């Protein structure tokens, strides 16, 4: 982790983010969209404004080097980056701050902290980079606990071993994205797992939440990049064989992938790496008709070409992300590799596009080798800066959220307009005026896309969470009605629980509950996430 | 399922297999290898020779249409196709025959049979095609049960829905390989999952055992081809959303994939299909040096080319499979697809081969478009006939077995000679003379191969199982010592349990045991497989 001090009121570190001057173009845009003159700006909280209750837990002598009651750290570990949480930050509502924050130096510290938590009946909340947008790290653990400890793995941030032959590395779970890539760079290898949270999220967090990464096809979820894992549970340390593939019983790693801290704390993993790409082919293709673009994407996804990037932005996503004017949907298409020129791959993908009326943008051609050029580059910049935008928008009374799913192709063309309409109607009902809603594909499979929706509305101060709920709940209900997943890669956390419970079969819930009780008999691990807190 | 009557003493149906005349060339070959004059042939059992104890379970009136005490069917459902089982068949040892065989017509029958088994405390053994080579369907359930019921899903053999847009189908679990492809053919789609057992194994069996299929790279295990599953458990019917991808908690399907009948009975699944291939590129490449061949395979597997076939046969595998003389290792390399010509892919793969000293065989060129031609074709024929060979060899007192694993590339070049030597030494120790052991890759990953070993020795009648154990145990011990998986796609069954228990962490064993107790409180489901029988 960097030495920079983390913000407790928003994305990233102190000193980072949008200044008032930076926000002016956004203010002008949203003033136009919502028909208002401008925005007043609520101030972010200062740490000294916030009174925290004294910790309910006393630090035992044996863990003095690990546990902290530092005021700033308790604030930092109170919230992730969900919309609700941002509203509560602005309201200075830190009532669920963890009593203590643990910074284990090694696996034995994790074991010792969990042992102590079990003994004193403290809830243990694993914390990676704190980038959860679903309430996954918020210590709202209910009455049954003597207190709550946030367990931040940022001191465990080393690449421990690199196997060049197999292209794999053993990496500690607390390693942040940039420091992970920094340590691999001298080896000419890369993990190439770039969720939007990359700068402020960790390997352990990615694994615990089944993070979606850089590759838009094939190796989409981190699940497929795992050789083995070590996981500390109150019942012992799980350790799997490091394997390229196996058929020996149900996959143990797949039980811990997506367990969101409810079954154990991931301390390290062997993961599969890539050679650093030296060949690239990038194009931007415009489609007047969005569904024609989606059909081109389907053709490419079923052709066995496996582009690294195949992100289809609908007209509104193009417009509101500042990528282009929005007169056409845009497909950002890219191949990359370290072995061979990719023009035959790109040529065939472009044929699929032109079969469906796609036109390669001239500007895209110029930047064919450079994903930072042209419309693709502008979209990429908006993507990276997105993390900082939310806090600035909430401070201006704006509602902003993204949600994502996956659905099979046969249902997509009926589902998509239903979702756009549902969110538009709910935004109008919630806020009394029209909002905006847009869509892109983040990942694509032969049997269906992972559509990613963004909505924005002008909220009413004091009612932001309530207004947000009306929109978000309508969208989530529609997902489950369509049997689309409640999340493709954002995870379940506390916020998606009601819909996750409808998606998950009662039989699987029984099995998972039983597994949890076996590994965490005291029910201390991230209570309320995936399963109900212990009583 | 076909109308042909299944053999209870060997592979396939009555009337199929090697005749004595067919076996003559094999006898000549093995007589030469083992330095004997010839072989006497033990007769296969006839059904009327075998006395079975009367069923300990009475068929309840409500299940008369489903349960059978037919003598022949009880014999058919006593054994899978493991070496041990073949020896016991020849010894007429059917003491563990199931008391009854169930043939459910639909999911409700499966539910009713499991309910009844729970009530009367009968062990319930799911049975697909009976092709298990690891004792996965043998009703050796111990003392704690009132009897054993083999549950054969062959009546549930329909493709229920086809979604052309997403290229997927909903298929009943009892559907055999050939009838599955027959039903997809009119739709111009194919599942392309061809384990060696294809003709006599079912979708449900493939799913329950994490079967390895046709594709040597990328979509190797059936796991990656599953959209959703329905599974009947004593605690209810599990049903997952049909999704192209998801990140909502630990994958429910991944818990049932590889559960080998211990957690429930899979009744149907939505699976991902392919267009029928219209483009093919096949070549055979010879390598004087086996490790040079392996390094070429590694280069191709890390290049992002994803061949459908990349099976490297070592010198002895080439020789003893009758593929060629065995002066060189042979790489059977193939690309296939339905979208575009594959020559750029093949051209780059052949460059990787020639970088490592590989020479394209002239004969292979002739059959470039036809996987049935040349050395590749001869190997393919041996592969398909392999199922029938075992029973004929055991009848001649020969020990024959295959086992398989996966291991990372960094360890492979030290592991491989250690394994060859271990099996050779154990064969000599067990049988008093040299045997043969050979190796091929069945599947290949960027981080390692799945080597598949075949060993043969001249056994002593009456001591075949004991001799076999000496060899198999030495091989299995070595796998676990190297932290290579005890099975890549053959499954665990009853035979691999001791090594699976060493591979699986105690923490995961606790979780799986707890999940099993939650779904199957009476412990009736396939007792002894993956977990100990209930007490």
Ordered list of secondary-structure elements with their pairings:
The structure is a homodimer of 535-residue chains.
Chain A: H1 20-34, E1 67-68, H2 71-76, H3 83-90, E2 100-102, H4 107-120, E3 122-127, E4 147-152, E5 159-163, E6 168-172, H5 177-184, E7 189-190, H6 203-209, E8 226-233, E9 236-239, H7 252-256, E10 265-272, E11 274-275, E12 279-287, H8 290-301, E13 309-313, H9 315-320, E14 329-337, H10 343-355, E15 359-360, H11 362-366, H12 374-394, E16 398-404, H13 409-431, E17 436-445, E18 448-458, H14 464-481, H15 497-503, H16 506-519
Parallel strand pairs in A: 2-4, 3-4
Antiparallel strand pairs in A: 1-2, 5-6, 6-10, 7-11, 8-9, 8-10, 12-14, 12-15, 13-14, 16-18, 17-18
Outline of this structure?
Two copies of one chain form a homodimer. By secondary structure, chain A is an alpha+beta fold. The first copy, chain A, has helices at about 20-35, 70-75, 85-90, 105-120, 175-185, 205-210, 250-255, 290-300, 315-320, 345-355, 360-365, 375-395, 410-430, 465-480, 495-505, 505-520; strands at about 65-70, 100, 120-125, 145-150, 160-165, 170, 190, 225-235, 235-240, 265-270, 275, 280-285, 310-315, 330-335, 360, 400-405, 435-445, 450-460.
